[in-house]
Design goal:
This protein is of the alpha/beta class. The chain has a single domain, classed as Glycosidases (TIM Barrel), CATH 3.20.20.80. Helices cover 32% and strands 17% of the residues. The protein has an eight-stranded parallel beta barrel with strand order 1-2-3-6-7-8-9-10. The protein has a five-stranded antiparallel β-sheet with strand order 11-12-13-17-15. Strand 2, helix 5 and strand 3 form a beta-alpha-beta unit. The two termini are 30 Å apart.
Length: 444
């Protein structure tokens, strides 16, 4: 079965679903967009209070879920750089004085909730800082080498952390208690789980059940593993699609590769699984460069792809203002906000996602069908549809001008182009003359 036919079948299957799967995504996530917050780099102050003041602005942007990178005290032993890695956690129940107090964090959560937003914490379950109290109170919680010394995770250069021993049931119990603490005591709404594949699926299944018994939560896995979606996680990273977009931007692949990757994902993942689509995040920004480095002048075009493919779009802080710099990971390095036009661009995308059920997440949104063009080597066109909701996307995913004829009923009749507001009503085949990286998004 070719990609176009398979995706058309997917469209019909999703549009006709009348029941929920055994796994139920938390209802407020169904039309949500997610925003990653690096508290250290978000503001000059680098504090909870400084970020809290910007929450109404992010509400205006259209953000629903605030993912905060780890807020815990950072280990001193073997610390990298001056300030260390957020992911070298010294105390799972503490907040770093660098960011503020526990009360400051409570205030942040309360303000987010008052704005109809949700807060998830970045959780590092696989390893701790070498000076975590467990190294003294419970050394049996850790893996050790032949000399009895603590060790970093195998196959990594993470010399500022040490590996927990997940064969020890007591580690499961202690970690579960610490995760429950943040939901019970601070009212957070879930977790983004670091290197989720390095922790047993059985633990994730257990903790999801325990957390949901307190309140319905949202769980994001930093992984691309279908097993995570059976009982534990609402969403996982669409890493493979991200890499495909990078290759298309460089001219190493054609737009066909995007739909080939969609077909592969549909074969692997259940229909209720949310896939997080992104053009940047903290790892990509710091280690592989900004979206402008990787995607060049196509950065906005691929942001449109990420927001309109099946899945949930991520915005990494600073993208909404065109932040042009790769942020230092272990030092203070303030994001820049040079271009206010990006705010309106992302606000339009996120409003489109909320308004059009065709773009909603998992089973609650529509499928996708590729629309053939006379120039598929450069131009990508597709439709998302659910009931009366319909979104049509046409993009030139190349650095050269492109001309393409498109003859499709999806482009007939009364349409409005989302970004310009222009009336695109027409009938019959149409020739598109597109600038490099130009995109058009239509609703009916």
């Amino acid at each position: 079965m070719n990609t176009r036919v398979l995706l058309s079948v997917f469209l019909l299957v999703l549009s006709s679903c009348t029941h929920e799967p055994a796994f139920r995504n938390v209802p407020w996530s169904r039309d949500a967009a997610i925003y990653e917050v690096n508290i250290r780099q978000f503001s000059e102050e680098g504090t909870f209070k400084a970020f809290e003041a910007k929450i109404p602005e992010l509400k205006e942007l259209g953000v629903d879920i605030l993912w905060l990178m780890p807020i815990h005290p950072i280990g001193q032993k073997n610390r990298k750089g001056t300030l260390g890695s957020y992911y070298a956690v010294q105390d799972y129940r503490g907040v770093s004085a660098e960011y503020g107090t526990e009360q400051d964090f409570r205030d942040l959560v309360a303000t987010a909730h008052a704005n109809g937003m949700y807060v998830i914490l970045d959780w590092v379950a696989n390893h701790t800082a070498p000076d975590h109290p467990w190294t003294l109170s419970n050394p049996d919680f850790y893996q050790k080498d032949s000399t009895g010394a603590f060790i970093p995770p195998t196959g990594t250069d993470w010399t500022d952390v040490i590996q927990l021993d997940w064969t020890n049931p007591a580690v499961h119990d202690a970690m579960a208690a610490d995760m429950r603490y943040w939901v019970e005591e601070f009212g957070i709404d879930g977790f983004r789980c670091d290197v989720a594949d390095m922790v047993p699926v059985a633990f994730w299944n257990r903790i999801r059940s325990e957390l949901d018994a307190i309140k319905p939560v949202f769980m994001l896995a930093e992984a691309e593993n279908p097993d995570h979606h059976v009982e534990a996680f609402d969403m996982s990273y669409a890493w493979n699609m991200h890499h495909v977009m990078n290759r298309v931007a460089k001219g190493e692949s054609t737009p066909d590769a995007i739909f080939e990757q969609l077909e592969a994902d549909m074969k692997r993942f259940p229909a209720h699984a949310y896939r997080m689509q992104f053009t940047s995040n903290h790892d990509e920004n710091s280690w592989n460069g900004t979206e402008f480095v990787r995607l060049g002048a196509g950065a906005k075009a691929f942001a449109v792809v990420a927001a309109t493919l099946p899945g949930m779009p991520l915005i990494y802080n600073g993208q909404e203002y065109g932040n042009p710099k790769a942020l230092e990971f272990f030092e203070k390095d303030l994001i820049q906000r040079p271009d206010t036009s990006y705010f309106a661009f992302y606000r339009t995308l996120l409003q489109l996602k909320r308004d059009e059920q065709a773009l909603h997440n998992g089973l609650h949104g529509g499928g996708i069908e590729r629309i053939p063009t006379s120039n598929d080597a450069q131009v990508l066109a597709y439709v998302r549809q659910y009931g009366t909701s319909e979104v049509v996307v046409v993009l030139n995913l190349s650095a050269e001008p492109a001309t393409a004829t498109i003859d499709s009923s999806y482009l007939n009749g009364a349409l409005t182009e989302v970004f310009s507001g222009a009336d695109a009503t027409r009938t019959g085949a149409r020739e598109y003359v597109l600038d490099p990286w130009q995109f058009l998004v239509y609703t009916r």
